[in-house]
What we know:
Layout: E1 3-8, H1 17-32, E2 37-42, H2 43-46, H3 53-63, H4 70-88, E3 91-97, H5 105-114, E4 121-124, E5 127-130, E6 136-143, H6 151-163, H7 177-188, E7 193-200, H8 209-225
Parallel strand pairs: 1-2, 1-3, 3-6, 6-7
Antiparallel strand pairs: 4-5
Helix pairs in contact: 1-8, 3-4
The structure holds flavin mononucleotide.
Amino acid sequence: xxxxxxxxxxxxxxxxxxxxxxxxxxxxxxxxxxxxxxxxxxxxxxxxxxxxxxxxxxxxxxxxxxxxxxxxxxxxxxxxxxxxxxxxxxxxxxxxxxxxxxxxxxxxxxxxxxxxxxxxxxxxxxxxxxxxxxxxxxxxxxxxxxxxxxxxxxxxxxxxxxxxxxxxxxxxxxxxxxxxxxxxxxxxxxxxxxxxxxxxxxxxxxxxxxxxxxxxxxxxxxxxxxx
Length: 227
Ligand SMILES: Cc1cc2nc3c(=O)[nH]c(=O)nc-3n(C[C@H](O)[C@H](O)[C@H](O)COP(=O)(O)O)c2cc1C
């Protein structure tokens, strides 16, 4: 039995493309992997344990073995619970909308929470080593414009145009900093098998919204079956 952890960073609004496609993925996964455990971690529901002044002070006290306040103890306990849940999972589904070429702040906060030395990675004399090997992930993201449609060749064209100062009306994968960041953090943790499902262009081509959604739903179904 495997555990699938669904990490969802989306404000609770109607008609979300990323949530609709994410739900399709999870529903199909449940149908096709009936013995697996599925945990939904909704980052907007309870609030991700923060890295703030209380956390920093609690870590300092922990390091120097000083007594902590109840608030500090409670916050560190929440950090540990969320981190244990992340480490224990076998597979991950990250779901989010693109906000300003990046991930919603809650997803960044989640990645801050999970980047813990000796838990998800360690530093060695040969550089950092990820500790979460043998796991896999999928990133499901909706964006109003198109970043990945034209593939690697699109990125090359984008770079050439940039080098010659030619304005490009197409976006490029290089401008999807959120996916790049998430993929790199997962690699840093040792998770190198990261699939992608981009639901793109529904704001740029409003008349094609339903078609974009239908295609992504079909893709979600087929990817979930073999995930
Ligand atoms: C605050 C905000 C920032 C956004 N930034 C971008 C952006 O940088 N690039 C883009 O293509 N779309 C951007 N969008 C559009 C959303 O990514 C798009 O509408 C997407 O479908 C939202 O996901 P959802 O349908 O799951 O809610 C932004 C939307 C909002 C509300």
